Amino acid sequence: MQNLLDPAILFFVFGVFVGLVRSNLEIPPAISKFLSLYLLMAIGLKGGFAMAATGLTYATAAALGAAVLMAFLVPTLGYALLKNRVSRFDAAAVAASYGSVSAVTFVAGTQYLKSIGIDFGGHMMVALVIMESPAIIMAVLLASAARHATAQQSGAMAGGGQRVSAAGVPPLGKILHESFTDGAHLLLLGSLAIGFLSGSAGEAMMKPFSGDLFKGMLAFFLLDMGLMVARNFQQARKAPLVLIGYASLGPVAHASIALGLAWVLGLGLGDTVMLMILSASASYIVVPAVLRYAIPEANPALYFGLSLGITFPINILIGIPLYTFMAQQVMG
């Protein structure tokens, strides 16, 4: 209940309501992009300042290792579950979206933990960055395998149909370059490095920017996200039932796996919750932008609509408090 009464979350709910009643309220695209860039810069600085204060420890290595493992495990499980229920291209695209992460969900999680007094390491911002690309790599490889298998089954390796399908796909190197050099990634990494290098002195200088303004900016951005969720809700409703079920229940399953891994590694409570939130989130910005060209055979309305229309609101409204409660019961 405390999460639902947070002003930022209430602005998200308000945005969904406004969108569903088809009001003409909208956030100009330029402002929306600025808010996104601000949040990435602020959260990167916060993580860098925290890492400068704590240094590199076992907890850092363990948490980042767990993040990398989850980044490969989630899309692998998702693809295995969906490949025989929807087209393999859609299965690869959906698995990549859910194997990757949502920076906004992560930011909302940090604010929730702060509100209830649970600390976590600044290295979890690094986890946010490194969990983005593995799912894209796997999706590209799985889609390539699907194209090859489809061509073999149809006996059309020498025909024009399959060649046309594959011809529109950029080279793997170009796709990976775009995923690693995405502006959001670089801004987050750069801010993290600047925060780490400037340390406590930099934190004091940037406090009005990365501290005092943060909550208000987040509320403004979540209002915009609520409007976007309302616009994409109809797309999500048209998805096959198995995908709707995956979008609704998959995040809890992914968070549970992350919780078990955190328990085995002995992570702290805050790091455990953040790992669960990252594992339960789904990308609706970077991954869809890359997959649009990497897997043109997949339906963008599915992987974008599901992650934004179903999973994102579930995580924002009930998922984050649920994952926190689960971690508290297991980790103490």
Radius of gyration: 20 Å
Q: Low-confidence stretches at least 5 residues in length (pLDDT < 50)?
A: 160-165
Estimate nothing, just give the exact number of structural domains: 1
Report the span from N to C terminus.
Answer: 21 Å
Global structural class: mainly alpha
What's the pLDDT, averaged over the residues? 85
Please write the CATH class name.
Mainly Alpha
Fraction of residues in helix: over 70%
Largest sheet: none
- What overall form do the CA principal axes indicate? globular
Which topology does CATH recognise? Na+/H+ antiporter like fold
The total strand number stands at 0
Just name the CATH architecture: Up-down Bundle
Along the chain, the helix and strand elements come as: HHHHHHHHHHHHHHH
Number of helices: 15
What percent strand? under 5%
Transmembrane segments: 6-25, 37-56, 62-82, 89-108, 120-143, 184-201, 213-230, 242-266, 272-295, 302-326
Pfam families: Sbt_1 (PF05982)
Keywords: Membrane, Transmembrane, Transmembrane helix
What does this structure look like?
The structure is a single chain. The protein is mainly alpha-helical. It has one domain (29-152, 165-224, 233-331): Na+/H+ antiporter like fold. 81% of the residues lie in helices and 0% in strands. The chain contains 15 helices and no strands. The longest helix is centred in the C-terminal third of the chain and has 32 residues, at 300-331. Residues 160-165 have low confidence and may be disordered. The chain crosses the membrane at residues 6-25, 37-56, 62-82, 89-108, 120-143, 184-201, 213-230, 242-266, 272-295, 302-326. Keywords: Membrane, Transmembrane, Transmembrane helix. Pfam families: Sbt_1.
